[in-house]
Design a protein that fits this description.
Blueprint lengths: L1 E2 L4 E7 L8 E7 L4 E7 L11 H5 L14 E3 L25 H4 L3 E3 L2 H19 L4 E4 L6 H15 L4 E2 L7 H10 L17 E5 L3 H4 L1 H12 L3 E6 L11 E4 L5 H14 L5 H7 E2 L1 H8 L4 H8 L3 H13 L3 E5 L1 H4 L4 H14 L9 E4 L6 H6 L6 E2 L3 E2 L3 H11 L11 H10 L4 E5 L3 H4 L3 H10 L2 E6 L11 E4 L8 E4 L4 E5 L12 H11 L9 H10 L9 H4 L4 E2 L24 E2 L18 E6 L15 H6 L5 E3 L1 H6 L7 E5 L4 E8 L7 E5 L28 E6 L7
Parallel strand pairs: 7-8, 7-17, 9-10, 9-13, 10-11, 12-23, 13-14, 17-18, 18-19, 24-28, 25-27
Antiparallel strand pairs: 1-2, 2-3, 3-4, 5-6, 5-19, 15-16, 20-21, 21-22, 24-29, 25-28, 26-27, 26-29
The structure holds ligand MGD (2 copies), iron/sulfur cluster and molybdenum atom (MO).
């Protein structure tokens, strides 16, 4: 930190939005406790660059809607979930929740009273029904230290492994496939390594909008000769820089990559040495992909056989090839199979462990890699150590001083299911907004409403907080010191720039206070001490601490942080599981086929300016101004077939519900599908989505369900 003038100072931190993890400095008007400017810093992931969110999206921190005092629900005030979902359905006012509609149903409370209420209720349920009647959703928007404390509280304090977070909705299937295939879920090569790749396959992701600074490195690589093969169902802007853009049919990925592997094997473009020394099960893979010649999948994938073959030849002939993937791969009921195919593609061509090669599932939230590493996952303790391994458990029991459950806990969607059935009675939700972000929100509404006790800790009064019995005001990222781990495995230290508003408290501090009230005191001198305890129970972070991370951070693994930046490329000689397991996958049908009644496939996702459920970005003046309302994107041919013109108000309906929204007629989207961004509560994509999950990753199929669309006679009705 360097002083600027009497009332302004510059604080080095990290952008609070996406997994790229851009290092930045905030210029703080200390007299008014506000950030006035964000500047890109020379970080390993951004080299000084920022996107529009990092540069302008900081003013949510001082928005008037910030929660500043603990709130307690007034008894019987209104039926839970009724405020944002009345008899007219989910056609709610635009913009973020107006606290004035909700606040009359709550009263302000002191911290003591609120914490007492939380402790009594959660401990009461634990005593009466057992720990497994409780569950927690932790946050990938907070720090590693907070994630570590949260899962420690749930496991040792509540007595259950029912702890999960948004990774379940995100890359759970990719991680399942990577753990099975190589024994580690982290990326093998950092984004910027694309500069050294001859070819990069970029599939099921939209980096220009969702990983914008990473996308700048991809574009630079393309300009310097890296061939981009972009595969998607809706043309992403990065396709403008691609050697080939391959528009495939939604959900046809397994067939597509199997056909690529078919060609690579047929043409002798495999790396036989690598297959022999670094992998196992090649024969089974070969037998499976033999059934997928390009000619036989072309129609299903919607891509000519010759183009599939060309893509395969380009990938197979590359000296160094990289694979980047996102939610278009992971968020399917066959998401794990999709990722298995991409892993196999990289393996049979020997593309790992060298510059410009490897696998990079682009991580989403600023700290989803770290939150997973810290153990916000129901089956594993920190560093992916299994809860059902007796030796591992004995070590954590010694460290945490409590007997721990040997049973893997429930995942996000299983917790919702459990609440619906009455098996989960109490919940602690910190920094997640499942009433907007989980699939089939009508189901989520019933589940949350059935809970006997819910405590929500957030920075805003979210849709989910409307179900809470107690709401606790936490701290925004700019108000805390703590580490986050980006998509490249870079661990970086964020530093506190602002004071939390009113009586709001540090999130890590609140977690410890709840622990105290449920009879499991957790005391730490400061956040750095929490980091040390966390790092001490992992291999990946063991050598790191706040001091050594300093302003620039390190990639893990980093055996010698005094002399090294850490490893930008891993698994040069071997994989954590030894040899990589090649797991063949066959194409499976979609979760909900289209038919005459619901003829279109719904694709959901993001826009550049907004963040998930919009709590932060819709309260940021610049970002809201750039992207004020939701839309459904539809191909001109489909629009014509439905009598829809650009800008018309339409209704989009699935078997779960319907939304009203304005149409954007664009030819970037594949015929037969429509796209709705997930950010706008008044036109909430998850009213429509299907709650079915992938059997291995337990991830919902956010990228596929059947919908119909119809033009609304007049402008949107009230
Ligand atoms: N602006 C912004 N940036 C974000 C976020 C945000 O909310 N806003 N969220 C962050 C988070 S948590 C995440 S996980 C990442 C997500 O980053 P992405 O993975 O880029 O996210 P999506 O917008 O969901 O885009 C998925 C892409 O998959 C495509 N797709 C859909 N179906 C299929 C299919 O069947 N096959 C293939 N091959 N492609 C398909 C879609 O058209 C879309 O381009 O973004 C992060 N960055
Ligand atoms: N239809 C559809 N649905 C999807 C997806 C999709 O592609 N399509 N993508 C899925 C994916 S990949 C993801 S990651 C999830 C994201 O789902 P969520 O994690 O539920 O979404 P966010 O809006 O990021 O929620 C973060 C919450 O944390 C709060 N918050 C932010 N910072 C802090 C902090 O420092 N402290 C505290 N206490 N609170 C804080 C915010 O106000 C917000 O309420 O959505 C999933 N849902
Ligand atoms: S690319 Fe991601 S981390 Fe970088 S400034 Fe934009 S939102 Fe922030
Ligand atoms: Mo995500």
């Amino acid at each position: 930190m360097t002083g600027q003038s009497v009332s302004a100072r510059v604080v080095n931190s990290v952008c609070p939005y996406c997994g790229v993890g851009c290092a930045l400095s905030w210029v703080v008007d200390t007299a008014n406790n506000r950030i006035v400017e964000a500047r890109g810093r020379d970080g390993a992931a951004n080299l000084g660059r920022l996107c529009v969110k990092g540069r302008y999206g900081f003013d949510y921190t001082t928005h008037a809607h910030r929660l500043a005092r603990p709130l307690i629900r007034r008894e019987q005030s209104y039926p839970k979930g009724a405020l944002s979902w009345d008899d007219n359905g989910p056609h709610r006012p635009g913009g973020p929740v107006d606290p004035q509609t909700v606040l009359p149903h709550f009263r302000e409370a002191t911290w003591d009273e609120a914490l007492e209420r939380v402790g009594e209720n959660l401990a009461g349920i634990r005593e009466r029904e057992g720990g497994d009647a409780l569950a927690g959703f932790g946050s990938a928007k907070g720090s590693n230290e907070e994630a570590y404390l949260f899962q420690k509280l749930i496991r040792a304090g509540f007595g259950t492994n029912n702890v999960d977070h948004c990774t379940r909705l995100c890359h759970a299937s990719s991680v399942a496939a990577l753990l099975e295939g190589i024994g580690s879920g982290g990326v093998t090569n950092i984004v910027r390594d694309i500069a050294r790749a001859d070819v990069a396959l970029i599939t099921g992701c939209n980096p220009t909008e969702n990983h914008p600074v990473a996308a700048t490195f991809m574009k630079e690589a393309a300009a310097n000769g890296t061939e981009l093969l972009v595969v998607n169902t809706r043309r992403p802007a990065i396709a403008d820089h691609a050697a080939m853009y391959l528009e495939i049919r939604p959900g046809s990925d397994v067939s597509f990559y199997n056909a690529m592997m078919h060609v690579i094997i047929r043409e002798g473009l495999i790396d036989a040495d690598f297959i022999a020394t670094r992998t196992e099960n090649f024969d089974a893979l070969k037998a499976t992909v033999a059934d997928y010649p390009p000619e036989s999948v072309a129609e299903f994938c919607g891509v000519e056989a010759g183009r599939i073959t060309e893509a395969a030849l380009r990938f197979g002939r590359a000296g160094a090839a990289m694979v980047f993937w996102g939610m278009g791969i992971s968020q399917h009921t066959h998401g794990t199979d999709n990722a298995r195919c991409l892993i196999a593609l990289a393996m049979i061509t020997g593309n790992t462990g060298r510059p410009g090669t490897g696998m990079h599932p682009l991580r989403g939230q600023n700290n989803v890699q770290g939150a997973s590493d810290a153990g916000l996952i129901p089956m594993v303790f920190p560093d992916y150590q299994k809860v059902d391994d007796p030796d591992v458990r004995a070590r954590f029991e010694a460290l945490w001083g409590r007997p721990l459950s040997p049973t893997p806990g429930r995942t996000v969607t299983e917790i919702t299911e459990g609440a619906l059935e009455g098996a989960i009675r109490g919940m602690y939700i910190l920094g997640e907004n499942p009433f907007v972000s989980d699939p089939d929100v009508e189901k989520v509404r019933k589940a949350l409403a059935r809970l006997e006790f819910l405590v929500v800790q957030d920075i805003f009064l979210t849709e989910t907080a409307e179900f809470a019995d107690v709401i606790l005001p936490g701290s925004a990222f700019a108000e805390k010191t703590g580490t986050v781990t980006n998509t490249d495995r870079r661990v970086q230290l964020g530093r506190q720039a602002l004071r939390p508003p009113g009586e709001a408290r540090q999130d890590w501090h609140i977690i410890c206070q709840i622990a105290q009230r449920v009879g499991y005191p957790m005391e730490y001198a400061d956040v750095a001490a929490v980091f040390d305890e966390f790092a001490g129970c992992t291999d990946s972070y063991a050598s790191l601490n706040h001091t050594v991370l300093g302003d620039h951070g390190r990639w893990y693994p980093c055996p010698d942080p005094e002399h090294s930046e850490g490893e930008p490329i891993v698994f040069k000689d071997t994989f954590p599981r030894g040899r990589a397991l090649l797991v063949p996958a066959r194409q499976s049908p979609p979760v909900e086929a289209t038919d005459a009644e619901y003829p279109l496939v719904l694709n959901t996702g993001r826009v550049l300016e907004h963040w998930h459920t919009g709590t932060m970005t819709r309260r940021s003046q610049v970002l809201h101004g750039l992207s004020p309302e939701g839309f459904v994107e539809i191909h001109p041919d489909d629009a014509a077939g439905h009598g829809i013109a650009d800008g018309d108000w339409v209704e989009v309906a699935s078997r779960r519900g319907s939304i009203r929204i304005r149409a954007q007629v664009r030819d970037r989207i594949a015929r037969g599908s429509v796209f709705v961004p997930m950010h706008y509560r008044e036109a909430c994509a998850n009213v429509l989505t299907h709650p079915a999950v992938d059997p291995d990753g337990k991830i919902p199929a956010f990228k596929y369900c059947a919908v119909r669309i119809s033009r609304l006679a007049a402008k949107k009705s009230a």
